[in-house]
Design brief:
The complex is a heterodimer of chains A (254) and B (481). Chain A has 13 helices and eight strands. Chain A is α/β, with parallel strands linked by helices and 254 residues long. The longest helix of chain A has 16 residues. The chains are: A alpha/beta (254), B alpha/beta (481).
């Protein structure tokens, strides 16, 4: 992955919430808004937004994915950064939208321009806003971190999340066994190959739980997968979106 | 010594075999442990990340270069082989490949065959074809020998018996080899296996082997191995038959060097294999050993379908190291047999659709989370997740849709139900107005959310939408624009 050149903050950001955050994890979206505002950014939320198209794209339905992505493409007309509280969706917009519109020159150009200003939330907080949490002291806590595989490989999200959590005084990230192994979500994979997906997420829950009672992730899909698997098994492991955890820490509620 | 008849499975039974594999706790543990061991061994071979990336660049470049000139290199390779006195045979299908070997055996009056490790011979099911004609064929690679005794097929392309513990093998030897008491001592087991094989090398009329790299400019076959059985199989019997896929050729000996460095390091975490053999033609006048007659069988079997497509051609860059399966979270859980294909794991998922058709391998391209672990370790940089995605597209495409390079079995996963679901999904998410209605219904009527949600709730608590969507929460803050 090439080292990305980051712009200086301009005071305005777009938030692209993603469908999972919008429908299942809205508090995480709100927490992201708070964190951005805390750093002096005005957050703009285009209300016509829905989904990046990833579910259809990874299921072999590029036509439907293209239609949904196209509906988002015109929503970010100002040259402001687009912040996404989900690494895999940010990767979809940054790396796969230009390919998705292959054959439509004007849209490819538009997607390529947009790609330069799409950022995953923790990436944006660390690299662009250069957050400083040194005065946000809190009680010591051990937490686990799970990073979406495509987010780690396409967006470098693991490094950004570690840096963001590392900026919080008192927070220690405990590594778990097979940390870089996939949690078994994979979009429709979790429905189509539910047995394999179930075996993967059970292993993930077990290894997270062995090291911490609490974990965070910057990806909505993984969070729902791991969190709901833990809930089904009745185990105490608690998961949270990284935005929610960071907000609670800086507001001294955790 | 008695070997078992082969048990044939079909990749169309993938899902039921996955269920069996996941239910077998011992099998799962064997695979998890073995994969962890192999991952660590590989990592230890590449302590310098920069060197690794540079070497992968070279490896990928060598393979791309060879594929870009494939027809020309194959012609050169063929004419060099012929100048060396090697018989060259071309096979389009597995049946043709088996027929070629059977004809050679018949012409030579051969009844005993010894085989070094060759995945192409597995692909064409050569043992089965030989047995059917009353020809005795024994595997000489220890792992292959074990799976042959057990009547199984390899579960891994480099370590065929990786699914077995030493206890399994001790029991197998006790049951199938005469005068062999049970032991789970690895050295004793290896000694037993070697003893059983030794006389076979001497008695065999034909030795069959695979090929790791075929060198066009010199007509050389480059073979790597760890047991010496490859050298024995290719030099002791009077006839040597090498079987290879048409993609295995590279331009020069020099080009094979970086691949030969990447292969054992990626595969077994060895800096170099115990043996490597460069075979250039049969025994010459005055030489002490080597076969009197040498044949090379070049198999297509769907490879030219992958070759014809610019993107899918990358499939053929593979050097069969198996690192993709060693690092695959799906393979590590279900093991190699669940796939029902000669080549399991990520490489099998992108190669098998060309070999067998997308219809026969329908479930394979979707059996991945696209996590990318495979592409990250691939020594020749095959973009496996991109190719899986492409094959998903081809499987979903209408069977009668016209494309530049139609794939065999195109549209195998196309269904009216799936069209309806994705059409509905698109209808909602591509229209802000419809998405607003959907959002309102999902959140306001959340208590009517079904408690059973297809595969999701078998292993997870049901997904229930939030009380209010983020759209609602931000509109309440006056923030939605």
């Amino acid at each position: 992955m090439q080292r990305r050149v980051y712009p200086a903050p301009c005071g305005h950001v777009y938030l692209f919430a993603t469908c999972l955050v919008d429908l299942f994890l809205p508090e995480a979206g709100l927490d992201a808004v708070h964190l951005l505002e805390r750093e002096g950014q005005r957050v703009h939320f285009p209300r016509a937004q829905s989904c990046c198209g990833q579910p259809a794209y990874t299921s072999g339905n590029p036509v439907q994915a293209r239609a949904v992505a196209r509906a988002q493409l015109d929503l970010f007309r100002q040259p402001w950064p687009v912040v996404v509280p989900s690494g895999s969706c940010a990767g979809m917009m940054r790396l796969h939208w230009p390919r998705l519109f292959d054959g439509e020159a004007a849209r490819v150009a538009q997607a390529e321009e947009l790609a330069t200003r799409v950022f995953e939330l923790s990436e944006f907080l660390v690299e662009v806003l250069k957050v400083d949490f040194r005065d946000c002291a809190g009680p010591p806590i051990d937490i686990g971190l799970h990073t979406s595989c495509s987010a780690r490989r396409e967006m470098g999200t693991r490094a950004h999340a570690l840096e963001l959590l590392g900026a919080l005084p008192g927070v220690r990230v405990s590594t778990h066994e097979n940390e870089v192994e996939c949690c078994g979500f994979g979009g429709t994979f979790s429905l189509r190959h539910d047995d394999i997906s179930g075996a993967m997420v059970q292993d993930k829950v077990a290894s997270l739980q062995a090291n911490a009672s609490h974990f965070v992730t910057a990806d909505g899909g993984c969070l729902l997968n791991i969190g709901h698997a833990a809930k089904k098994r009745g185990c105490a492991l608690q998961g949270e979106h990284i935005a929610s955890f960071v907000r609670r820490r800086v507001e001294r509620k955790a | 010594m008695k070997t078992q008849p082969l048990h044939f499975v079909s990749p169309t039974q993938f899902r039921s075999r996955v269920g069996e594999a996941l239910g077998d706790a011992r099998l799962r543990e064997n695979f998890r442990g073995a994969m962890r061991f192999l991952r660590d061994k590989r990592a230890a071979q590449f302590p310098d990340a920069e060197e690794l990336e540079a070497l992968r660049d070279i490896g990928a470049e060598v393979r791309r270069h060879a594929l870009s000139r494939l027809p020309e290199l194959l012609e050169t390779f063929e004419s060099r082989l012929q100048q060396l006195g090697v018989h060259v045979h071309w096979a389009d299908t597995p049946d043709e490949a088996c027929r070629i070997v059977l004809d050679i055996a018949r012409d030579a009056g051969a009844s005993r065959v010894i085989k070094g490790k060759s995945m192409v011979s597995e692909e064409v099911e050569l043992n089965h074809a030989l047995q059917a004609q009353g020809i005795d064929c024994i595997e000489s690679d220890m792992g292959e020998f074990i799976v042959q005794l057990a009547g199984e097929r390899p579960s891994h392309i480099v370590m065929p018996a990786i699914h077995k513990t030493r206890q399994d093998i001790g029991e197998l030897f006790e049951r199938t080899l005469p005068d062999t008491p049970y032991t789970d001592d690895v050295d004793a087991l290896i000694r037993t296996g070697r003893r059983a094989l030794r006389q076979r090398f001497m008695d065999a009329d034909i030795g069959v082997s695979g090929v790791n790299f075929a060198i066009a400019e010199t007509g050389t076959l480059w073979l790597v191995e760890n047991e010496g059985n490859g050298r024995m199989s290719t030099t002791v019997p009077r006839i040597h038959i090498a079987m290879m896929g048409i993609e295995k050729v590279v331009a020069t000996l020099e080009h094979a060097v970086p691949l030969a460095s990447l292969l054992p390091r990626s595969a077994t975490g060895q800096p170099v294999t115990t043996y490597f053999n460069l075979l250039t033609g049969p025994r010459r006048a005055g030489e002490q050993d080597g076969p009197q007659q040498m044949h090379v069988v070049l198999l297509d079997n769907g490879r030219s379908q992958a070759y014809a497509d610019e993107q899918l051609r990358a499939t053929l860059q593979c050097i069969r190291c198996g690192a993709c399966m060693n690092h695959c979270p799906v393979y590590a859980r279900v093991g190699g047999h669940a796939y029902g294909t000669t080549y399991p794991g990520p490489i099998g998922q992108i190669l098998s659709p060309h070999l067998l058709g997308l219809d026969a391998s329908r479930d394979l391209p979707t059996a991945s989370t696209l996590c990318g672990a495979c592409a990250e370790v691939c020594p020749v940089r095959i973009p496996i997740p991109d190719l899986l995605l492409r094959l998903r597209n081809e499987a979903q495409r209408a069977p009668d849709a016209v494309t530049a390079h139609p794939l065999r079995g195109q549209g195998a996963a196309h269904s009216a139900g799936a069209r309806l679901v994705w059409g509905f999904w698109r209808g909602i998410f591509a229209s802000p107005a419809r998405y607003r209605i959907f959002r309102w219904c999902a959140t306001r009527l959340r208590r009517f959310t079904p408690q059973r949600q297809m595969g999701w709730t078998r292993h997870r608590a049901p997904l229930v939408p939030a009380r209010r969507s983020l759209h609602d929460l931000l509109r309440a803050r006056g923030q939605a624009e």
